[in-house]
Amino acid sequence: MKTFFFHLMPYADLDLSYADTHNSAWVTLPNSYFDPAKGAKLYDRYLSELELADLLGFDGICVNEHHQTAYGIMPAPNVIAGALARSTKNAKIAVLGRALPLVNNPVSIAEEFAMLDQMSGGRLITGFVRGIGSEYFASGIDPTFSHERYYEAHELILKAWTQTGPFRYHGRHFQFDYVNIWPRPLQEPLPPVWVPSQGSSETIEWAAAAERKYTYLQTFSPLKNAKKSFDAYRDAAARAGYEADASQIGWAVPIYVAETDEIAREELRPHIETFFNRFLRFPMEMRFPPGYSSVASTKSLIESKVLARANATSLESLMDLGMVVAGSAKTVRERLLYLQSELGFGNLIAMLQVATLPADLTEKNLRLFAAEVMPYLNPARTEAAAE
Question: I need a surface site. Which of 24, 205, 267, 382 has the fewest CB within 10 A?
Fold first, then answer.
């Protein structure tokens, strides 16, 4: 199992009383709630936490893209990844991911990722996402073209990376007379591509196709829903004529490690409950704008994931659903190894900072996880390092 530290970069200083007058932490929450001086300190802190993960031996560090929200103040993950390319040395840098339908120039994304791959010495993992429903309100992009723009942008980016330019590209949504990127990626033939999703059946089928075999990443889901998605990926791979490897499956989950189970729950409780009950708060119509997903996918997501989240308001309920792992190092490593045996994932995307979790507890969590959990998740790597 490979371990990655995933950071949302939330606005941890959010005045939580916003919920008394506003029904969302996304798009419509006035930016007067953002204090620029506090924001600058948070960016400095969060970069240091990602850099610490590299020093502690994590296989990778992960950033991602969200717009107009306190949930994650990282609208340009390429900027953060660029800083990390110079300040880290060993960990993969995973951008999970760029929201392809939201941009009008996919060639610029191909260029950005090529630069990051060069600057990091070939450590880049690229993530391609459609962006959640609220992003379409923030960007002004018509969600009915979400899938079309995603697939076409993906095609254009891969061609820009792998075909000798200049060449002409004229699709339905993007037209270029000259595609000829400088620089090209360092990794041959292209950087690894991961596809994070909330469980869309169309996305699972597409990622598992034999011509792609992209790593599929399930984000913050109840255990039974993650298993359903991973089984669907393996089934899609079988229909495509191959057996999916564990390295093609990733699971993202908040994790907290402390000296005892009781201390872990006490320290994590206010922050994880704030995350699910405040930072993730936005109305249903923003989650699923008309045309964003097929009727079948929308129905499945609402029934399985959204309703489960709505009923999970306490740390205990979140742990029962398998959406959070917390406890002593022994408890956490045993739970993760059990979950791996149940789900079959080869990549653990550990969310070790959440919402309002302060710097001291985040560092404690990182260090305990790296020292007392991570070695048990990949013993072969630990033995090799000791030789």
Answer: 382
**Tens digit of each residue's pLDDT (9 = 90 or more) over 49-84:** 999 999 999 999 999 999 999 999 999 999 999 999
pTM: 0.94
How far is the C-alpha of 378 from the C-alpha of 317, rounded, in Å?
Answer: 29
CB atoms within 10 A of CB 311: 10
Q: Which CATH architecture has domain 2-386?
A: Alpha-Beta Barrel (3.20)
User: Are the beta carbons of 239 and 220 closer than 8 angstroms?
Assistant: no
Distance CA 263, CA 66 (A): 32
Q: Are strands 167-170 and 175-179 parallel, antiparallel or unpaired?
A: antiparallel
């405040």: which residue's tokens?
278
Q: What is the pLDDT of residues 130-143, one digit of tens each?
A: 999 999 999 999 99
Rounded CA separation 12/271 (Å): 10
Report the 10 Å Cβ neighbour count for 266: 12
Indicate if the pLDDT at residue 204 is higher than 70.
yes
Average pLDDT over residues 349-361: 98
List, in order, residues 6 or more apart from 44 with CB less than 8 Å away. none
Residue 65 near residue 73 (C-beta atoms within 8 A): no
- Cα gap 41→280, rounded to integer Å: 23
Q: Is 104 helix (H, G, I), strand (E, B) or coil?
A: coil
Instruction: Kindly state the tokens that stand for 162.
Output: 């792998």
Mean pLDDT along residues 227-248: 98
**Six token digits for residue 122:** 């070939």
Sign of CA dihedral 148, 151, 152, 157: positive
Q: Kindly state the tokens that stand for 224.
A: 């039974």
Residue 256 pairs in a beta bridge with 326
Q: Determine the Cα–Cα distance for residues 344 and 336; give it in Å rounded to an integer.
A: 11
Q: Amino acid identity of 280? A: L
CA–CA distance, 76 with 63 (Å, rounded to integer)? 10
Q: Is 366 exposed, middle or buried (0-12, 13-18, 19+ CB in 10 A)?
A: buried
> How far is it, in rounded angstroms, from Cα 196 to Cα 156?
19
Q: How many CB atoms lie within 10 A of CB 141?
A: 19
* Nearest in space to 8 (alpha carbons), one of 280, 346, 360, 319: 280
Mean pLDDT across the stretch 102-124?
98
Beta bridge partners of 250: 217, 347
Would you state the pLDDT for residue 288? 85
| Residues belonging to the chain | 387
